[in-house]
Specification:
This protein has about 200 residues and is of the alpha+beta class. The protein has helices spanning about 30-40, 60-85, 195-200; strands at about 15-20, 20-25, 55, 100-105, 115, 120-125, 130-135, 135-140, 145, 155-160, 165, 170-175, 175-180. The chain starts with 14 loop residues before the first strand and ends with a helix.
């Protein structure tokens, strides 16, 4: 299935759950199912922290899918990020953008995730399925969770400080999501301050 055919026609119809939490349709349900099939074909391995994660680039045609994904994010999501937060970040978001990864919660492996903040400037989260029980991602500070987010919809949040979150225990089925993280802004002065910091 072609990536561009999997983009929801309503992408860009943004809804604000609160001032710092944005949602929009992104993938069709059919394309979400297609991605899950590709991730299952690739297989999953448990890392040292007990996570079942795998990179989008590793699936069949994954490098092209990553490129197409980033192109759509730049064209359709970045303008809303800039409009909502600040124009000062325009054009500075993508230099350190890592490959998106898929996460799987399964009764045979990872079933929940403890309270944490993401190591990112902004996190992009897409719900790939809804045929599971429990395992909602809870944002206690914002007093909402992902139970009402539709399959294929993207959530855009600040990664650190404002949006601590956890995932409640999986009750049945498997939960899949796709996560992209905008990691860091390039320093304004284009200078690496690591040596200065070690001298403090």
């Amino acid at each position: 299935m072609n990536f561009k055919d999997g983009i929801d026609h309503n992408l860009g119809n943004f809804n604000y759950i609160d001032r710092e939490t944005i949602t929009t349709p992104f993938f069709t349900k059919k394309y979400c199912d297609h991605l899950i099939t590709l991730f299952e074909k690739l297989g999953w391995t448990e890392d040292k922290q007990g996570n079942y994660d795998t990179y989008l680039s590793k699936i069949e045609n994954g490098k092209q899918i990553c490129k197409d994904f980033l192109d759509i994010i730049k064209k359709k999501i970045e303008p809303e990020i800039v409009k909502n937060w600040t124009p000062a970040i325009q054009g500075r978001l993508w230099r350190y953008y890592p490959v998106p990864f898929a996460k799987k919660f399964t009764p045979q492996g990872q079933t929940e995730l403890k309270l944490h903040v993401d190591n990112s400037l902004i996190t992009l989260f897409i719900k790939l399925n809804d045929n599971f029980g429990g395992c909602n991602t809870i944002f206690p500070r914002q007093n909402w969770d992902t139970s009402k987010v539709e399959t294929g919809h993207m959530i855009v949040i600040p990664g650190v400080i404002t949006h601590p979150h956890y995932t409640e225990k999986l009750e049945w089925g498997n939960k899949y999501s796709l996560i992209g993280r905008i990691s860091i802004l390039e320093p304004r002065e284009n200078k690496d301050f690591s040596d200065d910091i070690t001298k403090l």
